[in-house]
Amino acid sequence: MAAATVPANTSVILLDIEGTTTPITFVKDILFPYIRENLEEYLSDHWEEDECKQDVHLLKKQAEEDQRQNRACPVHTVDQTVHTDEEKAIREVVESVLWQMAADRKTTALKQLQGHMWRAAYHSGKIKGEVYQDVVPAIRGWRQRGMKVFIYSSGSVEAQKLLFGYSVEGDLLDLFDGHFDTNVGAKVESKSYERIAERIGCAPEEIMFLTDVTREAKAAEEAGLSVAVVLRPGNMELTEEERAQYTTITSFSQIGLSSSA
Question: What is the dihedral of CA 8, 14, 17, 21, to 10 degrees?
């Protein structure tokens, strides 16, 4: 029996990844440790490449912004100039990245570097993206009913495409009509969802958003989206008030489409 019914006027399903399509343990136990364990070696191997230089440049800009905002940050700021000793500069980047990860920050600069590192790992077969077993059949069913399906994650668009393109179930990218990341705005800000609707070309009311984070659900609702909160093993427990406030599901198979959706 459906635990959540998609409103009749819905034409788009918008999906979070971590804790929604993919076990939270995949990110915390596989993806993030890979960055921590391989960061210094990756930077050393790619330091002179343009892509790596751009990643470091963005991290430097982020560090400067943090200083302007008086945020706590590592003692060293990121630097990459011809006058800087390479090993010292790499060490400073490592400190900056590890500090941001420890603080669970979602900056675009951090996500871009992580995405490039994960790309190398996916391509080499060291990592395969995990998805819950109920995800693919549900998305195929929605698409057969004419729904469009998009991803909105704090992970970069490139990281999203890697996860689904190199998944344990093969290449799943054909299931999605597009991807959004923090370049469109933070997931806890309602304006971000308004921008997504505008870019998709539909009214916010035509989108249903599935996420495991109630702050994101609240922001999406404020923008006019319908929402359901996904309860998966390892996800943050909801309070009684949150359970009363939001429609909840434990599987995508619990989402029912109305006859005219």
Answer: 30
Six-digit token string for 151 = 């991803």
| The two three-digit tokens of residue 149, written as one number | 């399906």
Angle, helices 108-124/157-165, rounded to nearest 10 degrees? 20
Rg, Å, the chain Cα set: 19
pLDDT tens across 202-239, in order? 999 999 999 999 999 999 999 999 999 999 999 999 99
First-to-final CA distance of the chain = 17
Query: What mean pLDDT is reported for the chain?
Result: 92
Residue 47 CB partners (closer than 8 Å, separation 6+): 53, 86, 90
The two tokens of residue 93 are 């980047």
Instruction: Tell me the HSE value of 215 on the side-chain side, using a 13 A CA sphere.
Output: 5
List, in sequence order, every residue forming a beta bridge with 149; answer none if it has no partner.
13
Q: What is the pLDDT of residues 97-119, one digit of tens each?
A: 999 999 988 888 998 999 899 99
